[in-house]
Amino acid sequence: xxxxxxxxxxxxxxDTDLYEVSTWEVRSVLDHIVASxxxxxxxxxxxxxxxxxxxxxxxxxxxxxxxxxxxxxxxxLSVVPALLLAAYLWxxxxxxxxxxxxxAATFVLxxxxxxxxxxxxxxxxSGLESVGLAAGIVGFIVQVVFFFxxxxxxxxxxxxxxxxxxxxxxxRFDAVIDGAVYGAVAGLGFATIENAIYISGQIExxxxxxxxxxxxxxIAVVRxxxxxxxxxxxxxxxxxxxxxxxxPDRAGPIVVKGLLIAALIHAVYNSLSGVVLFLASEFLGVxxxxxxxxxxxxxxxxxxxxxxxxxxxxxxxxNAAHDDGPDGGPTxxxxxxxx
Length: 339
Fold this sequence. Notes:
The protein contains ten helices and no strands.
């Protein structure tokens, strides 16, 4: 879709001055003032989000004792699978590899913005408990709705915000597939702080070294299995964010589609995990850790393969675009593939 033009601009000569008739640019003192004010407001809004995320993170560190070196060790161990998956997506990028400074910034923003989701989830959970909608069969149904309406959409939105706020605006974000890479890194940041909070809560008050090691190790294993899911969910959303960048006339629906896909996969995972563990332990006698391991391998593995197939399709299109160019070079009209 081409940029629409006013009839005056469309019919006028190139030398005709149409400033504030049908075109606009920064010329006058007032123009400079409003342009600067707008830029400052946008920059201020971004800074406010980052500072607010930092405040929430500091509160979590202070109140949740996340600074404990034991929590740090178990957290690092718990994110190894998610880290390896995100690193693979970065390495497998068929275009130019994304710079480490953008990767690091996206990871940090994923950590900071996780606090937004934590606040929303906690407030809604407290509200449901206060009105007696958190127990029994009604509580189970409400919890499933909660996963689909609150947890999935909110958590995937804040992870996508971590990409949109900084990396998306960089010139190095120059291919659709870059969105999947940065989305995965944002998911890694989110999983890191989420794992730290879970581990901190589980080992709080345990002083016996053997009990501490056993409890911390067990929760680290569970969180290690859950971490790759965050990477995959946000990689889906990030891919569609990348697609939106190169289709600005349809950007809104494309971003919503990506968020919807990520949120649905996320919410279904949350909803099924408890059911599967209950059925496996109650009716099959399978230990819960084995049931959880099997469920994660099947569910996360399935959507991981779907993600890789999507990225593989991009890779084939990228290679075909380069092979079809003159002397095997890239074609000029497929700029979203150029690295």
